[in-house]
């Protein structure tokens, strides 16, 4: 029997989680991803895209999902690939807050009202130590 591990508004994120679970030997699958492609607002109304695993793997999968959401897996990846962790360009602190530039926020709000909600990416950073702001990407 399949159990739903989590639901995502972004079907690509669901596929990333599925691939990560499979890397640990958990036979995961993605359900309802086509709803998001065919009709985004309807997909949200139906609960988004689901990642499902056999019930026997649910606890193991929850631990991996928790590590993903807390950033532990990202830190491990950066360390394994030798990529420097995102940090404040002014003071070097890694204690920062992610946000969205105001113009992207305005576009997202406008599109949400006129057309449909869509996933956004927070790529503006604010340092909690010195208050410096910078953008990524
Ligand atoms: Zn700083």
Regarding quaternary structure, what we see is single chain
Report helical residue fraction.
Answer: 40-55%
Our Rg estimate from Cα atoms comes to 18 Å
Low-confidence residue ranges: none
What is the end-to-end distance? 42 Å
User: Strands of the biggest beta sheet: in what spatial order?
Assistant: 1-3-2
What series of H and E elements makes up the topology?
Answer: EHEHHEHHEHEE
Strand content: 15-25%
Ligands (ions, cofactors included): zinc ion
Number of strands: 6
Number of helices: 6
Major sheet characteristics: 3 strands, antiparallel
Number of domain modules = 2
The overall average pLDDT, rounded, is: 84
Estimate the global geometry from the Cα principal axes: flat
SS-derived structural category: alpha+beta
Q: TL;DR?
A:
This protein has 137 residues and is α+β, with helices and mostly antiparallel strands. The protein has helices at 11-23, 33-38, 40-45, 58-70, 72-81, 102-114; strands spanning 2-8, 29-31, 49-54, 96-99, 124-127, 133-135. The protein has 6 helices and 6 strands.
Keywords for this entry:
alpha+beta, three-stranded antiparallel β-sheet, 137 residues, binds zinc ion
Task: Provide structural commentary.
By secondary structure, the chain is an alpha+beta fold. It contains 6 helices and 6 strands, in the order E-H-E-H-H-E-H-H-E-H-E-E. Strand 5 (124-127) and strand 6 form a beta hairpin. It binds zinc ion (ZN). Zinc ion (ZN) is lined by residues 88, 90-91, 93, 127, 129-130, 132.
């Amino acid at each position: 029997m399949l159990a739903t591990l989590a639901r995502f508004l972004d079907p690509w994120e669901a596929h990333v989680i599925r691939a990560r679970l499979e890397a640990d030997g958990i036979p995961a699958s993605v359900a309802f991803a086509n709803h998001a492609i065919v009709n985004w607002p309807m997909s949200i109304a139906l609960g988004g895209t689901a990642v499902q695993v056999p019930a026997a793997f649910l606890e193991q999968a929850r631990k991996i999902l928790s590590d993903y959401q807390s950033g532990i897996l990202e830190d491990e990846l950066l360390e394994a690939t030798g990529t420097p962790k995102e940090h404040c360009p002014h003071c070097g602190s890694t204690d920062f807050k992610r946000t969205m530039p105001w113009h992207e926020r305005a576009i997202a709000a406008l599109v949400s009202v006129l057309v449909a909600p869509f996933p956004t990416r927070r790529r503006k950073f604010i340092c909690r130590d010195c208050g410096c702001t910078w953008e990524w990407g």
